[in-house]
């Protein structure tokens, strides 16, 4: 991934994202072509940058289910990094809490292992609220 794109995802700079897209309209497509890769959505999830993540989901919804080279989706990373607000907003989107990662573990499993009763309950209800 272009280091500038990684920095934009870490800092949450949507303006920088579009500057990079203007420079190379295929920047996100090139990332998506790789079967296992850290996407800008992975970086935003680990950093808890919700507005950037929403923009990325609008542009490339496929990134939400993509696993990185360690076998984790963006939601797996958000759970692991205790980005609870990010998790709260994303768990109910398109079954993302049930995306199987490394060893068949889902973000839902990770939430249960961490003992986060509120987020586990939200997953079970399938509720965005």
From TrEMBL:
Pfam family membership, one: Ank_2
Alphabetized UniProt keyword annotations: ANK repeat
InterPro entries in the record: Ankyrin_rpt (IPR002110), Ankyrin_rpt-contain_sf (IPR036770)
Coiled coil: none
Residue spans of the ANK repeats: 70-102
SUPFAM superfamilies (alphabetical): Ankyrin repeat
Protein name: (rape) hypothetical protein
The organism of origin for this protein: Brassica napus (Rape)
Gene behind this protein: BnaC05g49690D
């Amino acid at each position: 991934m272009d280091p500038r794109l990684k920095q934009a995802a870490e800092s949450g700079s949507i303006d920088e994202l579009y500057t990079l897209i203007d420079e190379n309209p295929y920047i996100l497509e090139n990332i998506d072509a790789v079967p296992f890769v850290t996407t800008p959505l992975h970086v935003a999830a680990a950093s808890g940058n919700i507005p950037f993540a929403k923009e990325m989901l609008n542009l490339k919804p496929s990134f939400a289910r993509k696993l990185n080279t360690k076998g984790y989706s963006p939601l797996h990373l958000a759970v692991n990094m205790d980005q609870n607000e990010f998790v709260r907003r994303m768990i109910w989107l398109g079954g993302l809490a049930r995306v199987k990662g490394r060893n068949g573990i889902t973000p839902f499993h990770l939430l249960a292992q961490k003992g986060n009763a509120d987020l586990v309950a939200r997953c079970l209800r399938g509720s965005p609220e």
